[in-house]
Write a structure and sequence with these properties.
The complex is a heterodimer of chains A (113) and B (111).
Chain A (H helix, E strand, L loop, with lengths): L3 E2 L4 E5 L4 E7 L6 E7 L6 E7 L4 E4 L2 E6 L4 E6 L8 E8 L8 E2 L3 E6 L1
Parallel strand pairs in A: 2-11
Antiparallel strand pairs in A: 1-3, 3-8, 4-5, 4-9, 6-7, 7-8, 9-10, 9-11
Chain B lengths: L3 E4 L2 E4 L5 E7 L5 E7 L5 E9 L2 E4 L6 E3 L9 E3 L8 E8 L6 E2 L3 E5 L1
Parallel strand pairs in B: 2-11
Antiparallel strand pairs in B: 1-3, 3-8, 4-5, 4-9, 5-6, 7-8, 9-10, 9-11
The chains are: A mainly beta (113), B mainly beta (111).
Chain lengths: 113, 111
């Protein structure tokens, strides 16, 4: 039973436009959410996180939105750059920290020049 | 500088052989994790350890074993009981209140 779902396996956008990556979760105990970026044959790198007490967190070009009632979060990248092309994983945990993360299957983002 | 190292980058296993993947961190993190990534799949938790000399099974622990004798080290052994070991293995660590940091990964291939 998948608790964190990234239903779209891939997304292709034009450089300079907005990329919107979506993530849904089923476990109402999740209270901390993270996005990771992963290049092939490398470990994931942390991008941005959000606690359930917030509905938005922004860091430069990256913004994460959380809709608790819908159990949905999204990552917005504006403007998208070719270097953003990677696989993005959504992850969630219960307990306010990152000690036990549950990951989605990932979404491959391609930003075309 | 601080980080997580995994070795080797590539590892080949013969049928019936046990192999051990190394993970070392100098971030002074208490918790360490092993994940497996298969194509089109997310990261699945194999084992984790929240403190030295203690560890717990994750979602897919069968065919794997770990030890945590030192805070800095969390080696993973892929035993011959693991029938489909070909995957990308990732080690991570965290202090708990911040993100998990990942190593560069080890790709395990079966000969």
């Amino acid at each position: 039973d998948q608790q964190v779902k990234q239903n779209s396996p891939s997304l292709s956008v034009q450089e300079g436009r907005i990329s919107i990556l979506n993530c849904d979760y089923t476990n109402s105990m999740f209270d901390y959410f993270l996005w990771y970026k992963k290049y092939p044959a490398e470990g994931p790198t942390f991008l941005i996180s959000i606690s359930s007490i917030k509905d938005k967190n922004e860091d430069g070009r990256f913004t994460v939105f959380l809709n608790k009632s819908a159990k949905h979060l999204s990552l917005h990248i504006v403007p998208s750059q070719p270097g953003d092309s990677a696989v993005y994983f959504c992850a969630a945990s219960a307990g306010g920290g990152s000690e036990k993360l549950v990951f989605g299957k990932g979404m491959k983002l391609t930003v075309n020049p | 500088d601080g980080g997580i190292t995994q070795s080797p980058k590539y590892l080949f296993r013969k049928e019936g052989q046990n192999v051990t993947l190394s993970c070392e961190q100098n971030l002074n993190h208490d918790a360490m994790y092993w994940y497996r990534q298969d194509p089109g799949q997310g990261l699945r938790l194999i084992y984790y350890s929240q403190i030295v000399n203690d560890f717990q099974k994750g979602d897919i622990a069968e065919g794997y074993s770990v030890s945590r004798e030192k805070k800095e080290s969390f080696p993973l052994t892929v035993t011959s009981a693991q029938k489909n070991p070909t995957a990308f293995y990732l080690c991570a660590s965290t202090s708990g209140r911040e993100t998990q940091y990942f190593g560069p990964g080890t790709r395990l291939l079966v000969l």
